[in-house]
Design brief:
The protein is an alpha/beta fold. Helix content is 44%, strand content 14%. The chain has 3 domains: 105 residues, no CATH class; 181 residues, Rossmann fold, CATH 3.40.50.450; 50 residues, Orthogonal Bundle (Arc Repressor Mutant, subunit A). The strands form 2 sheets. The chain has a 9-stranded mixed sheet, sandwiched between helices. β4, α8 and β5 form a beta-alpha-beta unit.
Length: 362
């Protein structure tokens, strides 16, 4: 963490409401946050609106500033860091952004922000198979040395973080709120695990609530931190497609997992594939495409057991199927089918979907 005096200067600069682009312009023009804060209103008017110039000029000398005191107290706690553009630990990948944040708030180990990473995102309303795919892919990537980056949302994001923690690598959660809160609250325990073994990061000051406009800003950081972006499940209106587009604009590889043609949660991934995203069936497809040398001491996860010879799995095919349809295909009664499907589910070969449908696992 910067020395307290340095942290206070940067906080005075970033706690004054300005866009990221304006902050970068001011730093290029004046050279440092100290110089910006020491500038006169007239000097600042070349870059800012009058109200902004007055606020920034006053920020340098404000003595009673409860928000500043709150942030300094937060930084005094273990595991809390402020990473600024002047810090060697600031992730270089974010410098590809034209609106890179001047400072990041971090809980946990900031070193994970500078490791080879892959963004993994998807739907909040994920299917059981989507959740399992996200966790399995993330665990494999983590085991192979990648940091798994996601957005801490319910659904695919949470599964991605859990998978990242399961490997010998870790995970980074980029959030759309201040780091003094966990959103959604159901992820509180997951957040504690991430802080212990990975990192949580935000460009938003403490106290910032989860507002809709915050999440596209969060998404650009997720896209920038990864060497590529994997979309597991997404509807056509999903914010995950925005993250994928931002990743492509930054020159990152975009990957997508295909799904059933009947599932709305697959349509976003299919659109990405039509638009040029790489279709992936295993984490090895991502390893092969990115060709990042394996980090010392990390071994790929063991492949999952497959059993494609089971006659019931052959009859199921790969799309979701109801028990009545399966009974018609196989000529087996519903009671016997239920018992067989339960055994296949316990073996990890079949997933139960909403509405009493079943789907074969890869």
């Amino acid at each position: 963490m910067p020395r307290n005096a340095d942290a206070e200067v940067w906080l005075r600069f970033v706690l004054t409401p300005l866009s990221c682009r304006l902050r970068l312009k001011l730093l290029r023009e004046f050279g440092s946050p100290e110089a910006v804060l020491a500038a006169s209103v007239n000097q600042l008017l070349d870059w800012l609106e009058p109200q902004q110039a007055v606020a920034l000029a006053e920020a340098g000398g404000r003595s009673e500033w409860s928000e500043l005191s709150q942030h300094l107290d937060w930084l005094a706690e273990p595991d809390n860091r402020l990473l600024t553009l002047a810090d060697a630990a600031y992730p270089a990948a974010l410098l590809d952004l034209p609106d890179a944040p001047a400072a990041l708030y971090v809980k946990g180990d900031p070193a994970w922000l500078c490791r080879p990473a892959l963004a993994l995102v998807g739907s909040r309303q994920a299917t059981p198979q989507g959740l399992e795919n996200a966790e399995i892919f993330a665990a494999d990537l983590s085991q192979s040395g990648y940091t798994v980056v996601s957005g801490m949302a319910a659904g695919i994001d949470a599964a991605a973080h859990a998978g990242g923690l399961a490997g010998t690598g870790s995970t980074v959660a980029v959030v759309g709120t201040g780091l003094d809160r966990v959103y959604p609250a159901a992820n509180r325990q997951l957040a504690h695990r991430i802080v212990e073994r990975g990192a949580m990061v935000s460009e938003f000051p403490l106290g910032y609530p989860p507002k809709p406009e915050h999440f596209p800003r969060r998404n650009r950081l997720i896209a920038a931190l990864g060497l590529g972006c994997l979309v597991v499940e997404a509807t056509l209106g999903s914010g995950s497609l925005i993250t994928a587009r931002q990743a492509a604009e930054l020159g990152r590889e975009v990957f997508a997992i295909p799904g059933s043609i009947h599932s709305p949660q697959s349509k976003g991934c299919h659109r990405l594939i039509k638009d040029g995203a790489k279709l992936v069936e295993s984490a090895q497809d991502i390893h092969d495409e990115l060709a990042v040398p394996q980090l010392p001491g990390l071994k790929p996860a063991a492949p999952r057991a497959k059993s494609g010879e089971d006659p019931m799995l052959v009859q199921m095919g790969w799309d979701p199927v109801g028990i009545d349809t399966l009974s018609t295909r196989t000529g087996v009664g519903a009671d016997v089918l239920s018992a067989t499907l339960l055994t296949l589910e316990l073996d990890g070969l079949v997933s139960v979907l909403p509405g009493g449908r079943y789907q074969r696992m890869g």
